[in-house]
Amino acid sequence: MNNKFVGLFLLLTLLLVACASAQPGSAPPPSQPPSKIPASQMPYPDPCATPLTLALNLEGAAQFPSAINAPADQPPSLIPGGRQAAQELADALQPSLTLCAYTISASTQTVIRQADELAKGGNQDQALEILRQRLQEIKGTVSHGRLAIPRFQETDWRGVVRDILGMAAAVYDLDGDFQPFHDAAKQIVRTHAAQELANADLLGSLRIEEEAILFGIEDVEQMARQRVNQIATEMIDATIEDFDPCNADREAVKQLLNTAAKATLLGVEGLEPGEERYEAVKTKAQQALAHQWNAYVRDRGLSSSLLEDVPPCRVAGRLDIRIFSICSQNWVIAGGIDFESVPDTDPLELTGTGQISYAEQSTIGGELDCSVNIDAEVNLSGKLTKEGDVRLLELTPSFSDDGHYAIVGRTTPINDQGVYPFNSYGTFVMPWVEGSVHPAFEQTIIQYILHISAQE
Q: What ranges do the domains of the chain cover?
């Protein structure tokens, strides 16, 4: 009986203990995972960790008419270059040799390994110290904005920065203060990038722009962007000016369009439809393609109706000069001016020389009644322009002398003398049409008649 009672008491005691252990707060909570990752486990914030793509005007370049559509036996035309072509141009402009492409120099890698070995041996402070010493040593090679000692790969300032970033990562892994390393790298980029920018070409300026963005150096970034815009603007302006539609082959047209699309990518102004640079590129490219097409038509003896209407590259002709004879009361040719276009001018400039010579006398009873005497050299300058759909000659002849006439009046009461006022016309305009006459009316004593001998 007593044994049963003792057993029952022990069982009740165990149950009470078990219930008590299950009450809230009766035991420490189980371990929880940390609320955040310790700094030593976070990735090192390397500026080169994430590849940077410079922002370019892809949409504008894709819409620019930088491609040539050339169907068989039809005139070629311009069409938008498209997204793929614009992306290829943009990829070619992305810097590939920034400081992030450098590898850490062998000498700095040796120091980093030494620091790692010291840290593994429990000498963390000593490990951090040799990294700090190495920083000071490398900084000395680029002191005062110059690379002072050609002992390391770091004689290129980008190599110096890459080495410093490598050591910063090592310091970070040792739970040290990597900020002095970042600050040193940033200052080197600021100093040397600004110095280098003054003589940098397009790709070099883009590289500096990207490096300034990586380190958050906004003033250098803006300077680089301005340099890029300056170079790209000068590039497209020079290309437009040097492009000659009369002598350009298909490859030259492609280069013009490619340069314009590249300038569009880089944000050069004036390359939107209707703007000056856009229209200049488009007009010159279309003219060149039209000349190439016209040469194709002529070479194959095709119908002249297939020829494109395009400003000619070369013209030549003659201006006949006729006078109304005071004596005979008839129109007579007194001479003329041969002219031709001046190469590589736009609008097409003209130059020519000629001579006029005419003499006439009439007598009555063996005595002089009327005389005309003209003898002069003439120089011609001018240009071929277009107004609407009509091409016009704008001409300025210059005569060495005016013509003279005299009426003695043997049979009439008229007694007069005067000049043919060749130099009084100054500059005049007449249509670029075979056989056109200026002035068109006949109430004059001088007229010019156009004959076209070449137009191509």
A: 100-216, 315-455
